[in-house]
Design goal:
By secondary structure, this protein is of the alpha+beta class. It has one domain: Sandwich (Immunoglobulin-like), CATH 2.60.40. It has three helices and seven strands, in the order H-E-E-E-E-E-H-H-E-E. The strands form two sheets. A four-stranded antiparallel β-sheet has the order 4-3-6-7, with no helix packed on it. Strand 6 and strand 7 form a beta hairpin. The longest helix has 14 residues. It starts with a helix and ends with a strand.
Length: about 160
């Protein structure tokens, strides 16, 4: 039985779970993502840290000429170093500030209001779109696989 428990702990089976909670919509121009996460477990574990990663998926083009790039806007590690007991829930709020990346078209549109209109039309023609995803990973002592939760941010 001890061997089975060690394998389960090593793989994270019946172990730590994390759940993100975010507002329904966010104003991404504020450069701030707020929310909370909850950590729970079915067996006694030791939590080392939580890592929050904000990713932007930038796509442009149509069909065969479609290009997709993924950028990490912010990665922040929160050190916890605490034991969590069976059926205990740890909930913590967070604020994640980031600097958005600007494409060449965005930079040109920021120069003056005439260019802004032209770049808006160019973006529609090139079918550019950005989606944002927040990932929360938990580092658990003795686990090789990190439990995580992922949520897509919905902009206003």
């Amino acid at each position: 039985m001890a061997l089975i428990k060690k394998v389960k702990d090593w793989l994270g089976i019946e172990g730590v779970k994390i759940a993100l909670s975010l507002p329904e919509t966010m104003n991404l121009k504020d450069r701030l993502v707020t929310g909370s996460y909850s950590i729970s477990t079915q067996s006694d574990q030791y939590i080392e840290s939580v890592t929050l990663i904000l990713k932007e998926k930038y796509s442009r083009g149509r069909r065969k000429s479609k290009l997709i790039d993924e950028y990490i806007l912010k990665e922040e590690t929160i050190i916890i170093d605490a034991a969590i007991m069976t059926d205990e829930v740890i909930t913590q709020e967070f604020e994640l500030t980031y600097d958005p990346l600007k494409s060449a078209m965005d930079k040109m549109g920021d120069k003056n209001f005439l260019y802004r209109g032209l770049t808006s039309i160019a973006k529609i023609i090139k079918n550019t779109k950005s989606t944002y995803t927040l990932i929360a990973e938990v580092s658990v002592k003795g686990n090789k696989l990190k439990p995580y939760d992922k949520m897509e941010l919905v902009a206003d």
